[in-house]
């Protein structure tokens, strides 16, 4: 599939997450409000932040599909990174609000035992989110979408959090109502942690950071190409879900310009077949390398 086809397919996973998060957040918030469970309300707020994340992924993917123009010669692929950076601030803000609301309540004696239905809702929510994770994880692998892969990990995290909430709420049924408030505070901290993680990843990509282990992997791929004497340098940039590479290779100094060009073409083709969106290859003669 082409890059645009992959981006469109990745959008389906984001839409799936969006719909599920809307349904679950409404159901959990109503349940938490009616049956007075701080933990379930906090979990609902966590899902509400995920609604924003899903929307950001969708918007980012839609903008990324736009073709390159004279002002954006590399395309609009970094729109995805910009949108997730914005979302990270929203997520951290919500997490801070949850902690501020619930942490002081741990010091009071006013605790309420939530209804057993809150446990059922939380457990069902967890199972559903793990199912969404399985679907999105498969789509992310198929489309090589980094944003959808991150979203799928968030799906799994949310599923495990909901199941953990259900288990924690079970303890409230045995005369430990304070567990509800403690869980809400912990969930608030988890929301902040999630937002900060997204913030770090976004800043890393926007500042042209690149994982060293990935560079080594791509260096190895280049070395697999016939007639490449040495891989002198590999630089990479993340553009949303896409990867751009600049590669400097060493070739035989006795080759003609056309032969050196053909080697560069083979390197580009090999890397593109391994998921790289754009490759620039610069050849150098081995005589320069020997001096």
From TrEMBL:
<dbReference type="InterPro" id="IPR058533">
    <property type="entry name" value="Cation_efflux_TM"/>
</dbReference>
<dbReference type="Pfam" id="PF01545">
    <property type="entry name" value="Cation_efflux"/>
</dbReference>
<dbReference type="GO" id="GO:0008324">
    <property type="term" value="F:monoatomic cation transmembrane transporter activity"/>
</dbReference>
<dbReference type="InterPro" id="IPR050291">
    <property type="entry name" value="CDF_Transporter"/>
</dbReference>
<keyword id="KW-0812">Transmembrane</keyword>
<dbReference type="InterPro" id="IPR027470">
    <property type="entry name" value="Cation_efflux_CTD"/>
</dbReference>
<keyword id="KW-1133">Transmembrane helix</keyword>
<protein>
    <submittedName>
        <fullName>Cation diffusion facilitator family transporter</fullName>
    </submittedName>
</protein>
<dbReference type="Pfam" id="PF16916">
    <property type="entry name" value="ZT_dimer"/>
</dbReference>
<dbReference type="InterPro" id="IPR002524">
    <property type="entry name" value="Cation_efflux"/>
</dbReference>
<keyword id="KW-0472">Membrane</keyword>
<dbReference type="InterPro" id="IPR027469">
    <property type="entry name" value="Cation_efflux_TMD_sf"/>
</dbReference>
<dbReference type="InterPro" id="IPR036837">
    <property type="entry name" value="Cation_efflux_CTD_sf"/>
</dbReference>
<feature type="domain" description="Cation efflux protein transmembrane">
    <location>
        <begin position="15"/>
        <end position="206"/>
    </location>
</feature>
<dbReference type="GO" id="GO:0016020">
    <property type="term" value="C:membrane"/>
</dbReference>
<feature type="domain" description="Cation efflux protein cytoplasmic">
    <location>
        <begin position="212"/>
        <end position="285"/>
    </location>
</feature>
<keyword id="KW-0813">Transport</keyword>
<comment type="similarity">
    <text>Belongs to the cation diffusion facilitator (CDF) transporter (TC 2.A.4) family.</text>
</comment>
